[in-house]
Structure formats: structure tokens, C-alpha cells
Amino acid sequence: MKTIAFITDIHLDENLLQEKGVDTRKQWELLLSDLATREIDHIVFGGDIGAASAYPWFFKTLNHFNLKYIIGNHDTFSEAAKYYIGELPAGNELYYSEKGKHYKYIYMDTSAGSISAAQLHWLKNKLVTDKPVILFIHHPILAVDTPIDRQYPLHGRDEIANVLKEIDEKVFVFCGHYHMEDILQSDNITQIITPASSYQIVKQAKDLEFDNTTFGYCILQLSAFKIQTQVVMSRNGKFEADTMNTFHLAH
User: Fold this and answer.
1) Mean pLDDT by 10-residue block, N- to C-terminus, for the chain (251 residues)?
2) What are residue 49's phi and psi, to 5 degrees?
3) How many Cα atoms within 13 Å fall on the side-chain side of residue 141?
């Protein structure tokens, strides 16, 4: 069993959050304290670290964890790449992959709000696999009926979805960006949107509506035959287990 904490959208030191009364550094420290009480093997950060001034502090807080990270539209490649250990692809995108015992892991870069032709070509090659795929990406690939999807979607996402649907294996997409919880399925794709670790956006509101009363993350438990996800949310200063889902794999 492999356990991953998928955490996204902390937006450290951004002026807009400070204006909304969100203390992102304090919330990050509280979240890390909660992680310390759980059996977490790995952390994957899903993008939107925040202001570049916060990067040194952010990565220092994660020194004791086995960390993978991707970047989102609030991140800067030139700054984030300084903390990446490994060989970077050509161009200004941070994407990579790894083979696990039971899964193929793919980490994508949508910091530009789209992906380059080079990254799409790379993705097609990495999808040649006989294992289920776990894809970490900041932006959702499948459309969600919510105002933020209509205003700030990933450009070219249909092309990415079509590439994923061409393979025989199941694909599990873990993403953030929308600051809400959501699960969608389309053909072989299961998309799991994780709540933000800073503030939430009300899914069914007419226009963009912010909720700064709660923040959280998602725990993934991966075995050969199933994936279990557990959302953990902080409400009134206390972290509580929330939604749990199980996805079975056919072997």
C-alpha cells in the first residue's frame, strides 16, 4: 500500500488572500501538523504555491517529506525549477514521469493555462504502458458545471482528454485549480478535483463566490487492486475526515 497526500492551491503570500483574511502561512503550518499525525509516505503538491517570495520557505517546510510537485497558473517556471531534482525537459515546462509497481505516474505542467505541442507529444509516448495511469495536473481536464470552469479552463483540454481516451488502461486524474471537491468520469478517465489548502470556491454559485472558512487536502491509498481517496478538511480549527471514495481496478 502506498499513501500519498495530494495538496494543492495554497497561494502563499498573495495579496488577494491577505485582503480576504486568509493567513496562508498559518494554514500551511496547520496542515503540515495534521500530516504529521498520519502515515503519509509521499506528498504531491498540485500547483499554485503562490508568490515567488514564498518559495524558499515553502520548500524548506517539506524537506522531511518525499516530495513531488507540479506547477499551476499562479506559479513561475523559472522559480519552481530551482527546486526540482532531476533532469528537466527542454523548454519552460516542468513535466516528468515515473514507473511504480502497480501504476504509471505522470506529472504535467499547465502553468501557462495550456500545454505545448512538445509536452503533448511527450504525454502520448508516456501513455504507452500496461499499467493504470495516475496523472497529476493542476487544471481539470474534464469540464465541470461551475463558474470558474467557464472563466478559467485549461485551453486545449479536449485534445488532452482524447489522447488519454485512446489507451486501454484506466486513467485517474488528480487536479486542483477550481478550489472545490468534485469527481467526474468519462470513458476510461476518472477525474478527482481536490479542495484547496487556502480557500474554497462555491461550486453551484451563479458567479465566483469565495469561502474562506475551510481548507483541506486529499489522501490517496494505492494498492494493486484499488485506489481509495479520503478528503481531509479543516473546519473551526480542527481537521476532520470527510468524503471517502474507492475506485476498483480490473486486473
Assistant:
1) 96 88 94 92 95 95 94 94 88 94 97 96 97 98 96 97 97 98 97 97 91 95 96 90 90 53
2) -65, -45
3) 26
Q: Which pLDDT score, from 0 to 100, does residue 184 have?
A: 98
C-alpha span between 128 and 126 (Å, rounded): 5
pTM above 0.85, yes or no: yes
DSSP assignments along 5-69, one per residue:
EEE----BT-HHHHHTT--HHHHHHHHHHHHTTS---EEEE-S--B-GGGHHHHHHHTTTSEEEE
> What pLDDT, on the 0 to 100 scale, is given for residue 49?
97
What are the sequence ranges of the domains in the chain?
Answer: 2-248
**Secondary structure of the chain: what % helix, strand, coil (to 5)?**
25, 30, 45
Superfamily classification of domain 2-248? Metallo-dependent phosphatases (3.60.21.10)
DSSP of 113-166, one letter per residue?
SS--HHHHHHHHHHT--SS-EEEE-SS-SS--SSHHHHHSPPTTHHHHHHHHHT
